[in-house]
Amino acid sequence: MFKKSSIKKICLASFCLLILFILYLFPKNVSKSDSIVPDTTYSVSNVKDTVYLLDKNSYVARVNIAIKGETVEKKAEEIISFLTIGSNNAALIPNGFKPIIPSGTKVLATSLDDGNFKIDFSQELLNITKEEEVKLIESIVYSLTSLKEIKSVTILVEGKILNKLPHSEEFLDNPLDRTYGINKSYDLDKIKGSTKTTLYYLSKYDGYYYYVPVTKVSNDSKEKIEVIIKELSSNPIYETNLMSYLNSETTLQKYEILDNTMSIDFNNAIMQDVTKNDILEEVTYAINLSIKDNYDVESVSYTVDAKQIATFDLKSLE
Length: 318
Prior knowledge:
Layout: H1 2-25, E1 49-55, E2 60-65, H2 72-83, E3 97-98, E4 107-113, E5 116-121, H3 133-144, E6 152-157, E7 160-161, E8 185-187, E9 195-205, E10 208-218, H4 224-232, E11 252-258, E12 261-266, H5 281-294, E13 299-304, E14 307-313
Parallel strand pairs: 5-6, 8-10, 12-13
Antiparallel strand pairs: 1-2, 1-3, 4-5, 6-7, 9-10, 11-12, 13-14
């Protein structure tokens, strides 16, 4: 009797240990509400490739994707597929974003010559609405010039260069590059003497953080890096759902360009934690993207009160 009882106890104990072991191997799923990871985290390590799509606020926004093409031409055609309504790649677009090239548009031919990418579209490209024709050009130009081999874009329709927009008949310079601007915001006192400065703000959709470039067109005669820091350290643009994490007390104390590196020196208000010599990733990424669009430099060096904090390679932002 004692022997049988002992065997039962041993079996029961073994069975309990087995159940505990299985539960250990397969823990319960953790919901977003249980997660300890802050939802403001934007991991630039996850950046693969980039396209510019319309977000829910009708901004042309920077969205991360993965491109499989091996040649520049194949990558470019794949990018255009992401931008085209109803394409196979359109199904891979994250929620909250949408393509802008009219459905049925085909790429008839492409070529790359000394950094200029010529792309010939079918007639369907012109089936764009008046409200979105400028955003169409912005989306194509910014998406294609995200490839490091492409510096400018020449858009053709059925073999003819697109010299003007189909509805407004606004004249288009060819080739087109990022000086065309994107999500333009005008603050002009006079027509002559205007300058363009492109800034990158954060926006959010359903927990996903992404960057929105805005080209400020103004008569501001300040150096562009001064405009960038001034605008990004201003109060968040609540009415447009665009954000900047740069402290409003941040001051750009000095800047210089030497050997393809821009060095920018700030007061300690830029620091996330003074004791750790740390600057928010959202801050440096917004500044770096803005510098990349406005200056022909390869890296950015951050100093605080002349003390070296970090250096970033802008080529990694391709």
